[in-house]
Amino acid sequence: MLHRLTLPVTAFQQNCSLIWCSDTNEAALIDPGGDIPVLMQAVESRGLKLVALWLTHAHIDHAGATGTLAREHNLPIVGPHPGDQFWIDGLPQQSSMFGFPKAEPFAPTRWLHEGDTVQLGGHTLQVLHCPGHTPGHVVFYSPELKHAFVGDVLFAGSIGRTDFPGGNHAELIAAIKGKLLPLGDDVTFTPGHGPESTLGEERRHNPYL
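== Metallo-beta-lactamase domain-containing protein ==
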């Protein structure tokens, strides 16, 4: 069975997700933005084997601890889409600008594209390329859990910012309406910040949609 736990990290209270397969005890961290001791305590206290880091996009609050974790634990970095290469290149500058610990540079082990899948134990998640907040933003969707890890594309009652370099409001709305909402009203999602919601709730009541 696939399980998930939300771990808010850094001063930005970014929702890092720990997901794991209870059959194999293999685990992945989605968007390890910082607070490595908090993340590793969550992994180790459950007796899990961390096997991968998955990134929705490369903003500092989502990717800041990625390079360090990958080096210290010899982990593959999966994602985001190549459109975020310039954000990865700029992580050291981002960390100093926002007062984060210095982010170690990294190169993704595997870039992700629309239609790709990622595996964890015996479980498969679908990859949706959802640009707009950043050009290379991806979403991880588990049909089994009917749950999506959407990063900063969509929030409860709001949507991702598009005023950063590479942001595009029209692309963001198109991705939400064309790729996320069709997954179904009963699908829950973990946003990059704040509380969870359902796609149906956002389709009906989100003022930006």
